[in-house]
Each structure stands twice: as structure tokens, then as C-alpha cells.
Amino acid sequence: MKLFVENLSNVDVSYLDAKRGLVGESWLAGLVLTGNLDNQSMICDFGIVKRNAKAWLDEHIDHRLVVPTQMQGLHISKHASLLTIKFPHPLGGEFVCSAPEQAFCLIDTDTINETTVATWLEQKLSDSIPGDIEKLNVKLDCELMGGAYYHYSHGLKKHDGNCQRIAHGHRSKIEIFIDGARQPELEKNWAKNWQDIYVGTSEDLHNQPTIEGIEHNHYRYEAPQGQFSLTLPKAACYDIKTDTTVEQIANHIATVLLESGHSVTVKAFEGVGKGAMATYE
User: Fold this and answer.
1) Do 66 and 74 touch, CB atoms closer than 8 A?
2) Which of 83, 179, 231, 239 could form a disulfide with 96 if both were Cys (CB 3.0 to 4.6 A apart)?
3) Is the pLDDT of residue 18 over 90?
4) Vertex 168, ends 278 and 253: CA angle to 5°?
5) Domain total for the chain?
6) What is the mean pLDDT of the chain?
7) Counting Cβ atoms within 10 Å, is residue 144 exposed (0-12), middle (13-18) or buried (19+)?
């Protein structure tokens, strides 16, 4: 007998990829449990499964930088309470992220994708679910998107929760309207420019070192969870003057697209099923 839970939780992360660099991603997590019926004629109580599994995902992977520890060229070091991740960036130069350990999720693999992460989750989640469970399958799906979307990473230093972590991200749709009419070409262009982008805040940009002949952006800030810093090629970054909340992202895109005599509305998503809208007349 099998028990399934669809759309258990949205998981928003960033991960490191040898070909793409820093990638923001959003997954829909689901479970399938194989087991025997108990004296209540149940494999396990749905409420317990959903509560325990979601709590584990929220605690151990959501809003973290997922790191494939076997990726070629990756170097991990620890100093005091900070973990530092370093690897050669595909655009040249390097990627370096230093943050409290809780900002990272380390997985023993050379590649991060839905399959490798699901396999890791199956090993880790089993202990959090009570009952006579013979097998646990985890499924991670990407939202089906008919239009333009982009992968972005950011950090919100003023946030009290896990959004303060400097390298977490989302896979996000974008919808743009000019004078009430949808603009698919503008959406595609914006999504193309923001594929695998790091959206930074100008005041967090500490300096711009040149590494191996490549100009980099070095961000750093202090937040409630500790000190955070991130260095990556400037070509992989886009800075705005405000915080990088989805509200401010929508507002920024709308102001960039605003033309005299026309109204513009930008609907910017932050992962699955949530986001912000900005309208200018």
C-alpha cells in the first residue's frame, strides 16, 4: 500500500553548478510512502507526515545554498563559526561564499539536480516519519511555466528569518503589461538577461576586485544569523539601490520599463505562487 502527499512544500534554494555558476531554484516537494496498514487501517497519519516532513525541509534545505561537495575544483573550509565555499566560476575568476553553517546544505554528489537532491532527501527524511514505512520516495518538481521565467539569487540582510542568507534563490515567472496589454517579448528579454543572476543591493557592494583578469563583485553584510559575504564575477550580478525583496524587484523593473505617456505593470514572482505587482501610470 502506498500513501502520497503532493505539493507538500515549496523549497526555495540556490545551488552551485559547474556550467551555470550560482543558480536560484524553486521546487515543489512531494512524497510517496510504501508501508503496511496499522490498527487504524492507515500507513501513517497525513497530518504527522506533512508536519514532520515540511518541518525537516524548512530546517535543513529551504533558503540555503546547496553545495555538491564532490564537484571538481570545490574547496570547503571552516574558520570559527563561518563556513567558506570556493570554486572556479564558469564565467572566469571564482565564486566565494562565507556564511554561518546554517546557510549551506552540503550534499555528497558532484551535481545538484532534482534527482540527486531527492535521493539525498529520501535518506534524510526517513527518520522524521513514524509508522511501518518500508520505502520513502521524494519527488521534486519544477512549476510548469508557459511564459518567461528566470533563476535569481539574493539575500535580505534586514530579514529576521532565513531570507537573510546571502545566497538563496528562486525560479520565477515574470509578467509585463504596457497599457494593459501583455508584453511577451519584454518578458523574454528580461528573463534572458536575468538567467542565473545574482541581484545585489548597492550598499552591500564592498569592493570590486579583479581576479584572474575578471572584474568581480564582493558583497558583505551582517545580519541576525551572523556575517555573510559573497564574491562572484560582475557579469553574473545585477545591482539595485534598494533591498532585493520581490516588492522592490517588481518596482525596479517597472521603473526601468516606464515610458512617458504609457502605463506599466510588472508582476514579479518569487518562486511558486507568490510575488509582487508594481504599477506606474
Assistant:
1) no
2) 231
3) yes
4) 20
5) 1
6) 95
7) exposed
Q: What is the rounded distance in angstroms from the CA atom of residue 225 to the CA atom of residue 137?
A: 33
Length of the chain: 281
The residue whose grid cell reads 504527522 is 48
Asked if residue 5 is part of any domain, the answer here is yes
Range list of H helices, the chain: 46-60, 114-125, 184-193, 246-257
Print burial letters for 156-179: b (CB count within 10 Å at least 16), e (below 16). Answer: bbebeebbbbbbbbbbbbbbbbee
> Is 267 contained in some domain?
no
Mean pLDDT of 199-227: 98
Please work out, in degrees rounded to the nearest 5, the angle formed at the alpha carbon of residue 142 by the alpha carbons of 136 and 148. 180
State the pLDDT at residue 131.
67
- Domain of residue 89, CATH code: 3.30.479.10
Residue 82 lies in a domain: yes
Q: Pairing mode, if any, of strands 226-233 and 181-182?
A: unpaired
- Radius of gyration of the chain, Cα coordinates, nearest whole angstrom: 20
What's the rounded Cα separation, in Å, for the pair 102 and 79? 14
Per the structure, the complete domain to which residue 8 belongs is given by 1-142
From first CA to last CA, the distance across the chain in angstroms is 57
Question: Does 254 map to a domain?
Answer: no
CB atoms within 10 A of CB 127: 9
CA distance 13 to 65: 6
The average pLDDT across 225-250 equals 98
Give the list of residues 6+ apart from residue 47 with CB closer than 8 angstroms, or none.
none
pLDDT tops 90 at residue 127: no
Q: Kindly state the DSSP code that residue 245 receives in the 8-state scheme.
A: -
DSSP 128-181: GS-S-EEEEEEEEEPPP-SS-EEEEEE--TT-SSGGGSTTEEEEEEEEEEETTE
- Inter-residue long-range contacts of 117-120, CB under 8 Å, 24+ positions, other chains counted: 117/27, 117/61, 117/66
